[in-house]
Write a structure and sequence with these properties.
4 helices, elongated, mainly alpha, 85 residues, single chain
């Protein structure tokens, strides 16, 4: 049983490392966006795991405006990823 526990612990550690690397890559991509509002929307939603409603309240924008900013931000993320910068 101990060997199985060690094996599971190693698997959990590997998954945690994978998640940390993914989060770092996401943050690096978000920070490349030129528009501060777009960066903030993506950070609050994808990194801080806030709801769209909470992001709207935090930024003092309407829900619809936040979704609009989000759409523009995703287009910018696509450009960043395609450029490889």
């Amino acid at each position: 049983k101990f060997d199985r526990l060690v094996e599971l612990e190693s698997l959990v550690d590997a998954k945690i490392d994978e998640q940390i690397a993914m989060k770092s890559e996401i943050l690096q991509t978000i920070m490349k966006l030129p528009d501060r509002r777009q960066r903030l929307v993506l950070m609050e939603y994808y990194v801080e795991m806030k709801t769209w409603e909470q992001v709207a309240v935090d930024m003092n924008y309407s829900y619809m405006h936040i979704t609009r900013i989000h759409g523009y931000a995703l287009k910018e993320v696509q450009k960043v990823l395609e450029s490889g910068v």
